[in-house]
Known about the structure:
By secondary structure, this protein is α/β, with parallel strands linked by helices. It contains 13 helices and 22 strands. The longest helix is centred in the N-terminal third of the chain and has 25 residues, at 87-111. Adenosine monophosphate (AMP) binds next to α6, β10 and β12.
Amino acid sequence: MADYNVIVIGAGPAGYVAAIRCAQLGMTTACVDKWLTHDGKPSLGGTCLNVGCIPSKALLDSSHRYYFLQKHAALHGIQCEGLSIDVTAMQARKDEVVKTLTKGIAGLFKKNKITFVEGTARLGDNKQVEVTAHDGNTKILAADNIIIATGSVPAQIPVAPIDDELIVDSTGALAFDSVPKRLGVIGAGAIGLELGCVWSRLGSQVTILEALPDFMAMADRKIAAAAQRELKKQGLDLQLGANVTAATVANNEVTVSYQNKKGEQQLVVDKLIVAVGRKPNVEGLEADKTGIQINERGFIEVEGHCQTSMLGIYAIGDVIGGPMLAHKGSEEGVMVAERLVGQKSEMSYETIPWVIYTSPEIAWVGKTEEQLKATGVEYKVGQFPFAASGRARAHGDTSGMVRIIADAQTDRVLGVHIFGISASELITEAVVAMEFESSAEDLARTIHAHPTLSEALHEAALGVDGRMIHA
Ligand code: FAD
Ligand code: AMP
């Protein structure tokens, strides 16, 4: 007989949410995770809480405050003489935020009567899971269903090997104990941009090397162009079409060689962050030995509803690919749990929001103009600049715009793209609208409080029909 109805492997945002939903639905649930703190204690929450979303946002917030006080406070009549940074204190605050939240998940497990099992899980036959704890003890557990949520780890490139001293991955870059004078970043994806912004705001001279010729190739072109201009204004040196070919350490500095259209170039920095994406984590799981299909890029293959090639074994989150975002994994976890008890839950892959936490933020949902052009869909666009928003002006942060793309025939909202203050929060209105298959007219007829940043969405919706009031 099985020990549990469900064993979840991995307690990141995909796994812990799946475990909680399973328990809420009355299934006996265990969750296995191997993550330990520096002092050897289990730390739930996976990449997201320990070395991802949360610590990066904590440092973005601290660095944003410092940057504001240094560059903009005087405009508000606030004088800040003798301003300085204490990186140790900043890191301690970040660590405290992480600790509180990871402990919170342990509390949620207790509340929902989920059995937490510390250790590394290996899949056996007949839905058995062998767990080897940090102290070497091993136990074998069996379940009616298994949910694999083992996540991802930073991708590495042989030309810039991580030494955890001068050449670091995102985890190392979240733990610098001082502000590097010259900082190189390989990769202008969300992680490279966010970490570049943290240290640039704190005073590093940051150069970001990106192999692709286009900035943020996945984003709306006008939004990407506006963000690129703004980041340049903030002092980030963004080198596009720059393919890194080598990084060598000597005399306590890193010499980075890269190739661009002008030929071979060199950059000398004090620290180098390698932020070239993330790869699925199936290490130690031995999933392939049980017949679970893994594709050539290392992701666990799933069919609709996250079912692997083995009946009763599911996989969710980063380990199956698609958008490597915490909320995508969490919703997959909810869907799998609910389907296990016969509910007909579905994932809305078309309305997953994307956010990049630069300042101002970049956020979008749905299709870009380029994607619609490629499929021959006719569309209309409404665009409203934050410069015309009373609330953005009161804030003193007027860069960027909202762009709403709607079907030319039906007026249905097909995509919303925002570059501007609080875009990460504003995008949710667009997600709700798209989830309910709203038209631009629905948004235009919705009363928005004044003065709010969300009025920019209202105006952009009016703009789809050429009737903006304030621009
Ligand atoms: P993970 O969070 O990677 O968790 C997997 C867990 O499984 C880990 O705890 C691991 O210890 C455990 N595990 C693995 N193998 C085993 C095994 N064999 N046995 C036992 N346990 C195992 N996403 C966003 O949506 N928003 C953001 O702002 C954001 N910012 C980010 C910033 C940074 C710097 C980074 C690195 C990532 C960021 N992400 C962000 C991405 C986000 O962290 C991931 O998409 C998310 O954590 C994936 O969740 P997951 O549960 O699939 O996997
Ligand atoms: P993401 O996968 O969104 O986190 O982004 C990672 C970025 O790193 C991608 O845009 C890649 O083009 C970029 N990248 C990968 N390898 C290199 C390299 N050798 N030199 C410069 N950029 C790279």
